[in-house]
Each structure stands twice: as C-alpha cells, then as structure tokens.
Amino acid sequence: MTGAGTSTFWAEHLWTGVGDIRHGAVVEVVGDRIVSVVDDVAAPPTGSIELRGVTLPGLVNAHSHAFHRALRGRTQVGSGSFWTWRDVMYSVAGRLTPENYETLATAVFTEMVLAGVTTVGEFHYVHHTADGTPHDDPLAMSRALARAAATAGIRLTLLDTCYLVGGFAPASEPAAESDAEPADDPSAEPADDPSAEPVVDPSAEPVHVPLSPAQIRFGDGTVAAWAERATAVREALSGPTVVVGAAVHSVRAVPERDLATVAGWARGRDAPLHVHVSEQPAENADCARLLGSTPVALLRRHGVLDHRATAVHATHLTEDDVADLAAGDAWACFCVTTERDLADGVGPAGELVEAGVPLTVGSDSHAVIDLFEEARGIETGQRLVSNRRGWFGAARLMSAATVEGARSLGWDDAGLLEPGALADLVTVSLDSVRLADARRDSLLESIVFGATAADVSTVVVGGEIVVRDGVHARVASPGAALRSAIEAVLPPVDEPLSTLREDPSA
Amino acid sequence: MTGAGTSTFWAEHLWTGVGDIRHGAVVEVVGDRIVSVVDDVAAPPTGSIELRGVTLPGLVNAHSHAFHRALRGRTQVGSGSFWTWRDVMYSVAGRLTPENYETLATAVFTEMVLAGVTTVGEFHYVHHTADGTPHDDPLAMSRALARAAATAGIRLTLLDTCYLVGGFAPASEPAAESDAEPADDPSAEPADDPSAEPVVDPSAEPVHVPLSPAQIRFGDGTVAAWAERATAVREALSGPTVVVGAAVHSVRAVPERDLATVAGWARGRDAPLHVHVSEQPAENADCARLLGSTPVALLRRHGVLDHRATAVHATHLTEDDVADLAAGDAWACFCVTTERDLADGVGPAGELVEAGVPLTVGSDSHAVIDLFEEARGIETGQRLVSNRRGWFGAARLMSAATVEGARSLGWDDAGLLEPGALADLVTVSLDSVRLADARRDSLLESIVFGATAADVSTVVVGGEIVVRDGVHARVASPGAALRSAIEAVLPPVDEPLSTLREDPSA
Predict the structure, then answer these.
(1) Could you say which residues of chain B have pLDDT below 50?
(2) Collapsing DSSP states into helix, strand and coil, what is residue A111?
(3) Confidence at residue B38, expressed as pLDDT on a 0 to 100 scale
(4) How far apart are CA B220 and CA A391, in angstroms?
(5) Sheet holding A49-57: strands in order across?
(6) Percent helix, strand and coil across chain B, each rounded to 5?
(7) Phi-psi region for residue A303, left (φ > 0), alpha (ψ -120 to 50) or beta?
(8) Domain A6-56+420-487 class?
(9) Which burial class, exposed, middle or buried, applies to B431 when counting CB atoms under 10 A from its CB (0-12, 13-18, 19+)?
C-alpha cells in the first residue's frame, strides 16, 4: 500500500468528498498520495487506469469487531435479547488464538475491501489467552490484526480497548420497580453472570462486578497494565498503514476512577479514543442507579470527550448528552445494521448533527458488511421515527462513510481526494440493474440510496489497486477463506447454539 | 413459462417452503409443474440441472408499482414528505404511454426476476390517457403490463385499481387543532391540490375532493365503469401466467358508497383484492374526521376484508383494526424499504401475526428491489421499536416472501415446492463473501439475514430457466434497458425535480 511508483487514474465521475460530482477527472498518484486532480478530461489519457462509474473517497468502517463476523446468520436462530446474543459472541471469543484470529481477520478485512472499505477501525479487546494470562508474546493478538490488515490491503486503526470489569453490579432488590417478570424485560441485562465465581477483582468499588470467566481474557487487570500494553502495541505496530488508538469499552467495563487515565493516554499521543455509549437502555439505567449520571456525562467529567473521541452507537441520549458531545467536539458512530439486528433502537442522528456532532458509520458486528446500507440507514432510521423525509443530504451521508470516518480514526490526510491526500478511493459501477439509470443530476443520491457492496468494482488503497472488477488482487478465494476461517472458531455444526448459551465460557 | 418438456433439477440444499432444509433434492418437472421431490441424492443425476447453493420457492413481490422505479435516487434530492414525493411520482405517471410503459415495465420486471422474483402483484392504476380519456384500446395499459411480464418471464397478478376521487376533503378550519404551521407538519396531506379546478366530480358527497389534473388518468368516472373495464381486462388477459384481481386504491380514493361494489366484483370471481391501508397518519386522521372510522373498520363494514383481501402497508393500526383483519382472514403486505424511504413508520407486525394475520412483502416504490431485505426488514423493524430480538423465525419471514405472497395474489398452487405445484424456484448462491460461511444448522437464517438480490444465481418460472448464473435468458442488457426506459419517462436531466413539484401535472 506504499508503492513508490506513479499512477494515473481517469474517473468517469468523481466525488472528491466535497462539492459537486466532477466528470472525466484525472487523478495523478505518486507513491501513496494524490498529487493532482484535473477534471473535464473527456477521454482516458494513454496509460491511465480507467475507472468507469462513480469514484468516491475510500469508504471508512469506523467500528468493527472482526470476529463477530463468525456470528452472521447463526445468532438469528431462536429469540433473545442483546444480552443473549452477547453470550454467543463470548463463546466465539473464547475460541480465538493468535493464529486463527489472523486467518479470520484476514478474511473479514478482505470482505470489507471487496465492499469498498479502505480503512477500518478495529475495536479490539480480545487481548489475552482464554484463561486471562498473557500470550507468550503479549502483543500476539494485536500483531495478528495488523498482519491481517496488511494481507487484505486495508488501512487499520487499532483501537486498543481497556476492559477491566464485568459490568455494573445488579440491583440488590431485583424487579423492585416493576411488576414484570425479569424474563419479560428484554432490555434488562442478566447481571453479567453474577453467579459465576469471581476470577479477579481489580476494583474495590461496589459499582461493578468482576470479569466473568468468559470476559477474563479481555482484561489487563489494572488501567496501568492496560496503558503499558497499549503503549507497547503503539510502538510496535504504528506505521504508514496502521494507527494505534485507544478505546474505553464502555462505562460498564471501565470503572469511573480509571476513565481519566485512558483519556490521558490518548490525549498525550493525539490518538483516537472510541467508546461504546448508551447502546442499550439498561446501561443508562444502571449508570443512573449506581453513579447518578448518564454515561455521556460521566465520560465528559473525566475528560474522555474531546476532538479525538468517538461515541459509538449513542443511541439512547438525553438533550444534555447531545450537548456534551457537541461541546467536546466528538464524533458519534452509528452502526445501523447492527443496531437493527441487536434491537438497540434508533439514535438521535438529527439532533446530533444539528448540535454539530459529525456522524461516522460502522458495520460493528458485521450482520452485513455494506457501508451504503449503513449510510442510508442513518437517514431512513430518522424517517421511520419522525414521519419526515430528507434529514440529511446524500453528501452528508457519504461524508459519514468517508472523510468523517477517516478523521475519527486518526487519518487526517485521508477521506478527501485532493492533492497531498492518501490515494484511497473506490469506484462504484453503474452497470447493474440497481444503478444503471443513475443520472448526472443525482448521481450521489442514486449511490447512497441504491448501491450495495456488490456494486463496488475497483478499490485503491495508498495508490495500489487492491480490487479490480470486483476481484481481490491478493486473496484468491475470499468466500472459501471466510468459510474455513469461521469453521475454525465455531463448535461442530451439530452442536446447537443454545448449548453455547448455557455455557458461554466453553 | 409453460414449457411442455420434462426437466430434472438437483438442488444442493432445498427449502420447499415448509419444514427443514433438505439436501441433495431431485425435483422433477413436467410442463410447468413439479411432479416429484426426492431428497438425500448425493450427486446430481445424469442430465439433471445442478442448482448449487440453497433453492427456495420463487420469491413473490406482492406489491409493486412498476413505474415508480423511475424515481429511485431522484426523489432523495432535497427534503419533503410522503406527499411531496407523491407529486414527483405523479409527474412520471403523467408521461406514461402504453408503449413506453411496456418498455419500462419489461425492464423493471427483469430487474425483479434477476432478484429472484417469480411472481409480482402489480397494483395498477394508470388506466387512461393523460387527459383522462380512454386509450383507443381501453385496455392498452393493462396489455402493456401483461406483455412486459411475459417478456421478462415473471408471473403476473394484475390488480386493476379502482381510483375515483382525489382524496379526503380538507378540514374547513385548517390548523384549528394545532398551533403548528401547516408546513411544519410533515404528515399533513396538502389537501390534494384543492385549488386545482375540478375536472370531474363523480361523487355528491362532501367527504372527498375530485381527481386533480395529475390524477385524472387514474379514474374511470364511476365504480360501474371501473367494474366494466376490470371485467374486460380479466377476460382479455387471464391465463396460465396472469391472474387479474382488483384493488381499492385507498379509502382516500374510493368513496365509501363504492367499496361494496369493488368487494363484490372480487368476491364473485374469487379474485384477489388489495388495498392501501393506513400508510400515513393523515389518512387515519382524515378518515376519522370525515367518516368517524378507521380505514380498516370502514373496509370491514363494506365487505372488503375477506380471505382474498390484502391490506397493503397496515402501518398505523388500532387494536381493533388488527382484530378486524384477523377476523376477515386477510393478509397484511409490508413494504419496509418503501416504508423507510417514505417515512411511513413501522407497522405492528408482531401484533398482526399473533392475531393470525399472515404477512407478505412488496418492494412497492422500488427504492430498492431486494426481497431478502424486505423479509428481514419486517423483523429488524420490530426489533428497533421493541428492544427485543427474535420476533419471527427465518422460515416465517421466508414464507412471507414466498407462499403467503403467492396465495395473496391468487396463486394457490405456487409457493410450496411439492408435487402438483407450479415449478417456480430460485437458487441463492453461497459463493459470495456474504454467505460463504453459511452452515447446515442455520442455512435459512443465513439467507434471510445475509443474502442480497445480487446472490440470486438461478431463477426458474413454470419449469423454464429464466435466469442462470445471474444472467437473464431473454433480456440481453438489463441495465441498459432500464436506463433507456427510464430516460423516456423523465424530464431532461437539466430540469430540476423541484420544477416538477411546482407543476405536478406537467
């Protein structure tokens, strides 16, 4: 992705990330950067690489948990809640090794690149062995992800996640405020395995429960140990195609007293800092009960929300929460296909944007990987809950999936196709029945509201052609690679998923 | 579609529409019907047609307005409501002729077949010339649709739509119940051009306004004239691949006194009868104000709701409405990608199914054409508004897109792959990165929640292979066909859509 050569691309239609669509645009690339963009060139110059269709800045998937891809389809059997889904997810996490994780992440990142994604933010928390002890190489899992990204040809922001406790402590008088059976309240978190024997208790506060056996491999014990390991990861892996940032898993998983340390780590390095925020009502209810605050207010008080911060999901916010995110200059990352899948709800996209909080998008659990669906899903979600059309223009939705995502992941020189910027771009073919009727007066609208991942024809990362005519240049059989990688982290096919739910630490 | 020959298909995996997925299934077809299904045949018999992947009953698109396909992308420019969207739609309707409509519908039906649709319910109301007079052949528009379906290779239920008046009369004291500016209420219907000069007033009731100039071509003048024309259409076009049924456009467009006539026409012929119901809150509010009833209750009182009836959308229902639909043995057709696009809201799918109302799906305005997204969208919509997962199993969602749709369109012998049934089937490839990891324990879940229209590889209608390896057997360049067909019904590209909104009858 850092080729030293020179390439000339000719784009039939080009959206640089700002302004109107240009036509017949010649993009000159030297090494991994754009040196010039000239439009109104009617025919491709000799020796240029033709990009038929609409070329956009490379798509940015700002929130990914690569291994969740193994759950696609499988967690649709039977019913349940976010929390039962999480038990199945933990069972896959429990089977990961540096070796099978590299193979799996390579296949998942390859699927992303085929869908037009040139940069991914990997929210990474499977740090240690299944029993919680470090790998022989304590950075083994992070190195696996970096190698996977390099093989797949995708730019990586590794968000090294602090995950210290197992969740908020359950209320001492369950169901005291409701006549409903606990089992009837799908938003009630099942108290994070309170019956499980504590394995380690890094916190003296009664606010949280310790990590469960299924979670133990996510934790570093103390925030200082997290910071030490994250620093080592940053020093070892940062490079032309890798940024290392930080994440607070959530206010469920990091005690209040440790938030400022993670924030300080990121601020001191001007590194991106992401955090899951208010995805489910239960998090808000527990946070109010135990800490007398919303999650956003808690994060603000401890300096987590600044111009490098991203609140992931941001689904159940108060007006003050929205104002806090705006005052902090933070982003909000919407993951609408996951939020639909996990029954999270529709976040306040309109209020956030109006307050000045830019949006980004992520495929998160990879129920599907299609950033066009993520982008239009922001708009259609608002329409569903408001009875009004036209909240956001196509350009704003496309910016969420390109430049805003890039900036939120620490790539300040990506996301706009202009001289000096990284040469990351994606071409959407107009040949399919989905888009063949797109017209010059509404090309971007046709793409945002009608394109699918299957319409991506060419992907260029750092000047290198990674996908051409829908074929990955390096990975010969992406489907077969995914199949075998996922088989390696699943139980045998005749073992029902309900068994996993009964023993999430298996 | 009515080949007299014999074919043998071997399906790697087969869901017949009921029960578990079968493996290695041999489907024998004579003429247009299945004569036997035998499974556990390890290898394809000599001479058989191999169907690799998962074969399902052909998908059924129970609600389509073919010409709305011309709006895709274009109505995403700017903002607005359902009602401003409708103005743009009218401007396209105004340009239709029997010739350009046949070309357009052929291309749209071809897109559907490529997406795995073997039967479409076309809710057809553009009956006459733009000034409201009949074509020289009064059935010209219906014949255009039937020819288009034959060329595209799709089974057609033509729902001949009764459309007599221009909408509910506006309240005499506008905004009397609200301090809001009318323009701020996106659900407020702009009174269907009350300033437009009445062209015809078939009703003495003050409940409705006459057809506007943009609507005049939809109307037959009287319900008797509609019935006469619909009878002629049914006699002229019914055949092995065409069913002719009826539609009440809506309680906005058919006066109360005429509902029983349309219902009687359908009941006398045991023909399907579809009706747009409660898509927007404004319809309910106007119906309550002027007729003291919900739309569903009105339809029930006049005999519209029976075992041949489908309530299309059914978004804003009362508990009694749900009970009425169940008591009538009617279907509810959800069109979730359109309902997202048009800011309609999320209908009560859970309540309907629990009450015994089976669901069907439709791509309606064709914002996208992907029946997998329609099917999973029913489930994810419920998740978004309920905070709970697992409302419907994959089989029920797939039934909505297959057998329930077929029955609701009058094809009682389609939708299940069993001896005696019509040989309509679709094969979904498992080769793409979207589905390559699908496993035997959750194949149907993988498809319902992960497949897209682009994963359809083979489509068989009445025993004839219409699509093979994603290529339509008869239409050489479906994309180009769509492009030119849509260009023919749009204004020049430099004429902005806002102009159309100012003059919807242009």
Answers:
(1) 1-2, 174-204, 498-506
(2) helix
(3) 97
(4) 38
(5) A33-38, A22-30, A6-14, A49-57, A425-428, A456-461, A464-468, A471-472
(6) 35, 20, 45
(7) left
(8) mainly beta
(9) middle
The listed CATH number (3.30.310.50, 3.40.228.10, 3.20.20.140, 3.40.50.2000) that belongs to domain A57-408: 3.20.20.140
Q: Which residues of A touch B489 (CB under 8 A)?
A: none
Q: Note whether B442 contacts A74, CB cutoff 8 Å.
A: yes
Mean pLDDT of all residues in A444-454: 96
Q: What is the pLDDT of residues B379-401, one digit of tens each?
A: 999 999 998 888 999 999 999 99
The H or E element containing residue B361 is strand B359-361
pTM of the full structure: 0.92
- Let me know if B431 is a catalytic residue: no
* Listed residue (B296, B318, B319) closest to B309, CA to CA: B296
- CB pairs below 8 Å between A and B: how many? 229
**In angstroms, rounded to a whole number, what is the distance separating the alpha carbons of residues A404 and A358?**
7
Please tell me the predicted confidence (pLDDT) of residue B171. 86
> What is the DSSP pairing of strand B425-428 with strand A59-64?
unpaired
Domain ranges within chain A, ordered by starting residue: 6-56+420-487, 57-408
Residue B76 has a pLDDT of 84
**What count of Cα atoms within 13 Å lies in the side-chain half-sphere of residue A424?**
30
Mutual angle of helices B140-152 and B223-237, in 10-degree steps: 40
Backbone phi, psi, residue B117, to 5°: -85, 125
Nearest beta carbon to residue B437 from set A393, A433, A483: A483
Q: Where do the DSSP E strands lie in A303-408?
A: 309-313, 331-334, 359-361
How far apart are the C-alpha atoms of B499 and A191, rounded to whole Å?
Answer: 58
Measure CB to CB from residue A380 to each of B341, B453, B454 and give the nearest one.
B341
What does the pLDDT read at residue A4?
59
pLDDT for residue B492: 78
Residues with Cβ within 8 Å of residue B263, at least 6 apart in sequence:
B273, B302, B303, B304, B306
Q: Element (H or E) spanning B268, and its range?
A: helix B256-269
